[in-house]
Automatic annotation (TrEMBL):
Compartmental location: Cell membrane
InterPro entries, per database record: Mem_transp_PIN-like, Na+/solute_symporter_sf
TM stretches of this protein: 6-24, 36-57, 63-82, 103-120, 126-146, 167-189, 233-249, 255-272, 284-303
One of the GO biological process terms: transmembrane transport
Name listed for the protein in its UniProt record: AEC family transporter
Amino acid sequence: MKYVAVVLPIFAIMGLGWFLRRIKVIKGDVGNLENILYWGILPALLFRSIFYSGGFAKEDLNLLYVVYVSFIIMPAVSFVMSPWKKNPQRRGVSLLTCMRSNNIYMGIPVVSLVMGEVGVTAASKYLGISLVGYHIFSVACGQLGLYGKLNFNAVSKTLKELVKNPLIISCIFAMVCSEIFRINLPLWIDESLKILSNSATALALLALGANIRLREMGESLKETGIDTLMKNAVYPLLLMFLFSFWPVGHNVRNAVILVSAMPVAVNTFIVAKGMNMDHDYAARLIATSTFVSLITIPLWVAILF
């Protein structure tokens, strides 16, 4: 019960977001909320966390190995387990989503509530290392699932989009400022970043809750069950296994596994649609994996802590 209580505030805030949309306090889509998070609040959080993380130590090389080996192994596992071998559009979704966690809108808030600032710092370091590969590998594997070969135009387009990604830019900028120039942040800048960072958890969870469609859950649970299992359980188990070969600090290990146990990222729907996959199935998978995470996240908290 104590593990449920730890993450109960997460689902309470998500529930509030869902309720506010139901009574039309939040109207239409939640694009405005997500844009504020994506372009302003989350870059501030990532920059400040990485800036004060103390730099990259030797053990971070082990983290790099674990992350990118998992990006290679997990799509192969997903392909073997996918029930959609005769349906390329859904098979592509399976390979696209198997490691595409909701790192930002759910992972950071969960880690913040469970582990505090030390967890956010560890998760931010993980995101700094993994974000580029996260996008490139997931898109490339989705292409392999869809067509049986790589579509280099799609990969090239992804690379171009990454150059403009504010989350990646903030991670790189923080590394440059702290590791190369070794500057000290003026107090007023640090306090501004801190205020923005402190608003990230609540706003991200409200936006996520407002996107939930409860009516779709019952119908899609059976249909998306295998892919939900791959994302919410098998992928974090794979990372736990890989950390036995390339060990890192306890806080980093737990933060990375916990973030990887998050449901499918909400922007996967847009990616799947742009790549001519079964985007309706992707939408149902996002909704189902988020709903199932109500059970799996407390289980992972119990396992890790």
